[in-house]
């Protein structure tokens, strides 16, 4: 079914989305964000252990790769990551939603 209003709205919406994407990518590079989310299951397990028992962890230095760039969190347990803080925030939102939902 051909509806000129729907097609015009779809076209304008696509243009708006593309403009916003271009504006956003000039400030935030997805490559830079991928670095902070490069984790695996073993990293999360080890990092949670360090968060719960920091007194058992001895080496707190960050490691550098051969080209003097910092290693990814998957390779270096002391590298900063955004996976654990973002999952903690999402868990907080879910638990708060459940608690407030049960109370009502």
TrEMBL record:
Membrane topology: Multi-pass membrane protein
Presence of keyword Hydrolase: no
Alphabetical keyword list: Endoplasmic reticulum, Golgi apparatus, Membrane, Protein transport, Transmembrane, Transmembrane helix, Transport
InterPro entries per the UniProt record, alphabetical: Yif1_fam (IPR005578)
The keyword Ribonucleoprotein is assigned to this record: no
Transmembrane segment boundaries: 82-102
Family, per entry: Belongs to the YIF1 family.
Protein name: Protein YIF1
């Amino acid at each position: 079914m051909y509806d000129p209003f729907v097609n015009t709205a779809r076209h304008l919406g696509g243009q708006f989305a593309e403009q916003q994407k271009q504006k956003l990518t000039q400030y935030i590079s997805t490559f830079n964000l991928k670095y902070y989310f490069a984790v695996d299951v073993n990293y999360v397990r080890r990092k949670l252990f360090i968060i719960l028992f920091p007194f058992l962890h001895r080496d707190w230095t960050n490691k550098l790769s051969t080209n003097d760039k910092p290693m990814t969190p998957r390779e270096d347990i002391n590298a900063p990551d955004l996976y654990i803080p973002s999952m903690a925030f999402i868990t907080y939102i879910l638990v708060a939603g459940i608690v407030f939902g049960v109370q009502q």
